[in-house]
Structures are given as structure tokens and as C-alpha cells.
Amino acid sequence: MTYNTITALPSFSNIRLDAFEAELSQLLQNNLALLKKLTTQTVSYTWENLMAPMEDMDEKLQKLWAPISHLHSVADSEELREVYKNSLLQLSDYQMAMMQNTELFHAVEKLAASPSFHDLNIPKKKIITNAIRDFKLAGVHLNAADQKTFADLNQSLSQLSTQFQEHLLDATQAWTYHTTDSILLAGLPEHAISAAQQIASQKKLEGWLFTLDMSAYLAVMTYADSEKFRQDMYCAYNTRASDQGPHAKQWDNAEVMEKILATRHQMAALLGFNNYAEYSLATKMAKTPEEVIQFLRQLSHASLEKAQHEFEELKAFAKTQYNATHLNPWDIAYYSEKLRQHAYDVSKEAFRPYFPDTTVVSGLFNIIHKLYGVTFKAIKNADTWHESVTLFEIHDDAKNSVRGYLYLDLYARTGKRDGAWMNDAYSRRQLSNGDIQVPIGFVTCNFNAPVGNDPALLTHDDVTTLFHECGHALQHLLTTVDEAGVAGITGIPWDAVEIASQFMENWGWEKTGIDLIAAHYQTQEPLPISLFDKLVKAKNFQSAIQTIRQLQFSLFDFRLHLEYDPDQADQIQRILDEVRAELFIFPIPTWNRFQHSFSHIFSGGYAAGYYSYKWAEVLACDAFSLFEENGVFDPKTGQSFMQTFLESGGAKEPMDLFITFRGRPPKIDALLRHHGIKLTTAETIHG
Question: What's the rounded Cα separation, in Å, for the pair 413 and 446?
Fold first, then answer.
């Protein structure tokens, strides 16, 4: 089998923004013309004369659009933003023209009903059945007037989601905290002080400049002795893009959020669903809203009492040790870190010197090599969007072939969206000449950049974040499915897409994994066993609080889309308040506007699907328990996991893959055990 070479990689340096919209428009016109030809000149439909040409069309569009879409997230500019917005309008119209094309829908239906369908392989059959489902979810069965309404709503939703994210980015980057008072820095780790000084210097300012980038925000909230500093930072961060805080109403997302919910509700109603939650579940593992609510409340029932106990423990500690009689939200991370150090004699910062980014990345690749037999090779002088980005070729050692390419973009900077994520650039697919196009992916994080001559030093939380995103990347890059529509992460139900990522985090906690990723950046000494033991003992510190926090987000998201009523006002805040009351741990200020920056559900793919993190975590923990039984680097178990979850893409149902791998349906006990939460019943869930 012949594999494509590096020449198939996307080009970033040759992008011409001034010509992009015209180029996109021409491509979309060509695609629609070809589509008309396919559906009017063919009598007997086959994969070769219908689906294969459409896959070629999709591939051309993906190769044109992927670099621009990616740059909008990692290297935004005014010119790029305008091109991106205008292009989204074109793409929205095009996608609706495709998905509401009655002739195309009937052509695919005829193919599904033809004798040739039964001779197709599993991936091709899955693509066809998914296509029929997606046609219906796009309103292909609606009358002409309702089709147009649905298309208009879809275009509006795309614009609104972009607007939400742009408001959030602008609000995040507009606020800074400049100081020349060194006393204010008391308690902060050296890396945070150096980074703030470097940012100030870049702005030609004296002293230190703190931003709302996650790394800076967490450093202040966790370590700054100044309560006023923490309060200012908390207020600015938790009122971003809202009617509150230092930039009140300047980039307020309130109206955008309301419009997003109303638009989603209208789209779902047009298709005959009672609400957007039902519409969302049409493509997920969970089949009914009741199943999701029951799952979330099952976990909350197991976790809430322990979470409340953890907070009472924190209050007692703060009062006894620091005479803090009342804990505000901006005090919780600060005193929690003090309690962690008191209880386990360890600070998160103690691990930074042992996790230089280069060592962590090299060790992570070594872990992947041990598990799956692939090697990561850095590509020199690669065409990237920033000098700090690195490109790697993934090489299959046994087959002596290339499996794919991965771009790593690890550091926070201006113009880059906050958070961490993995995106696919190109999917694996078999070309018409028989060659295999290998997949290409992006892993993006926002760690502190290197300061001076020192490497970037990561926290253990940063390490697990990197492992998580690379878990997503492995599912995209190691697929052996040759049809792009269900290769890699494409076609996987959204509530199963986090299985591979959360599964990969486990090697960041195992001694044999830590030994491969940790070495002191100055002495090269391994992580001392005393520190490792403290890391493990502290693993489940306030784990129930963190679990309840995730369940709050999940229940808020799902209830919001399940219960939305276009005739009621202020539903977003009301439902959020009700969820916080139900899963109460500590009070939140009335002016907190967390929801205005909840990009996962308002501009990401997690609307009525944030529960997916916990849903998938159950399967991920239970899958890893087999490694705990057989050995965390057991080659047979590693190959089995790769062949089921990582290579199968979206061609097979995740539950079937899990049962094949584990030999039974999933249970909740492994997740609770991993979080140190006492198990009362080992109920089987999902299945």
C-alpha cells in the first residue's frame, strides 16, 4: 500500500486572504454543478458513481477550508475575522443546499435499497445510513417554505456562534492587570512572575502585566496572597462578555445566547422534536433525555455528600490555620492549595521543574510507542502558522509506513483562543488511484510560553491536558478506516468522542508513565519517589467537588436545551441558579456570569451534550481497568484497544467496540474508584 508524502500537508504561508472568498465561492459552485450532474444523469446508483464523487467534493472543500478555520482559532486578525465571517455565510448556504437536496436524498435512499448496498463494507454502509439520517436532521423532508426557514436558521446559528466566540476573545484580551508593586506578587510562583514581566516588557511597560489567559488566571487564583488581587481577577474572568464587571456590556453575550437558544429550539421544532435536547440525542449514544438526566443524577447522588464534606473540611482548615471566617469564591482555589500542601506536603508548583515541555512531549510519544508501536518524528522547516509550532510524522514501525501527521501548538499568545483542543485537518481516505491519504491533525494548548533560555515548565494539570488532547489525536491519526466519512473521529457519536482522550490521561498518573515524561530541567534527575507518592495521594484531593462542578455544567446545559420555552424570559440564569441549588457546595455571587463564557455549548459542539465528558469517562475508566489488571504497558491489551477504539473510527457503534474490548457492558464503579468516591452499587450503565 502506498502512502502520500509530506507534499499533501496544508500550506499556511501561501494563504491569500484577499482571494480566499472568491476561491471558496468558485469551489462551491463547481461542487453544486457536479452534484446536479450526479443526480440527473445516473439511473442506477452505486458507491462509485454517487458517494465516491461526493467524498472527493468534500475533500477539496476540507483542504481549502481547514487552514483558514484553524487560523481563526490560533492566529486571529481583523482581516482574517472578516474573511472567516463571510466564508461561513457561503458555507452555511452550501451545506443546506446539499443537505436539503431532495434529488440527492432520494438517490442515497435508492442506493441504500439497492442490491449493491449489501456488498459494501461496513464503513461504506455506515456512511450511507448516517447520510440518510443527517438529511432528515437537515429538513430534507420539509416543504419548500420550511426548508428555507430551516436553512436561514442554520445560517443565523453559525453567525451567532462565531459572534459569541469573538465577543469572548475580545473581552478576554481587553482586560489586563498592570502593577509595579512587587508586594502584590507575594505568593505567586516564579514562572508566573517571569511571564507577567515578559508580557509587560513586550508592551514596553515597567513591572508586571497579568492577562486573563488561563495559565495567568489560575496562578493568581491559586497562589496570590493578596485577596484584592484575587478578587479583581475573579471578577474580570467570571464576568467576561457580560453586563457585569470591568467591561460591562461592551461585548455582552446575553442577547447572543438568547438568540442561539431560540434558533436551536426553532430548528428542532421544525423537524418535529419537542426540544433541542431531543434533536441533539439523534446522533448520540444516549437515546432519550430521561436517560441523560438519570445518568447525571446517578453520579451526583454518589458524589454530592462527599463534595459538601470536602468543602466543610476546607472551611474548617481556613478558619483554624488562617483565621478566615468566610470563604468567597476567589478564596477557594487559594485555600484549597494551602490545604493540599498541609495535607500532602506538596504544592502543584513543586512538579513544574520536573515537567519541561520538551521532556513531557518526548515521553508522551514514548508511551504511545510502547502502547501502539508508532514513532513520532519531528519535521524540520515545516510550514506552520507560528515559529513555536512543531510538526511530527507518525511512523508505523511494524509496517514501515506513515500513519499521519500531527501539529503541536502549545503556548498561549495574542490572537489565540483560550483553552485546549484537537482539530482534524485532513482525514484518512483511499484515493481513486488506490493510494491512501494519511490523516493530519492539530493539537492546541495554552501553556505558559518558555521564558528566557528556560523551557516551558508544565504543571501536572498541564500534562494531563496534553495527554487528553493527544488521546483525541490518536483516534484521528491511527484509524485504519479508508472512507473519510467515518475515519478517525469523524462519525463518532459526540458522547463517545471523549473516551479515547480521557483514557489517555491515565498514563500521566502511572509510575511507569511518569518515569518517561519527568526529568528536572536543570539536573535531569527523575521525579523523586517521594514526590510521586504525594502526587498519587493528592490525586483525589477535592475530587468530589470537581465532579459536582462538571455535573453542574452538564445538568445546566442539558436542562437549558430540554426545557427552553420561547415565551419565558431569563431562563438561562434561572436554570443555572436551580442547578446550583440542587448541587450546592458553596454560594456563587449574583453578578457571576459564567454562562456568558461557556463556549463549549454556545460556540462549540457540546450543546445538549456537555454530559458527554462524564458519560465517556465511565467507559474510559472501565476500559483502563483492563490495563490495571493486565499491566499498563501490556502489548496485547494495547493492541486490542488500538484495534477497537483507535482504528475503527465511526464505522462501528462505540458500545459494541467497548463490549468487544472489555467483554461486557460498562460499569460506573471504575470511575468512582478513580475519583476516590465510595461505591454503593456497581450498576451497569449505558447498556
Answer: 8
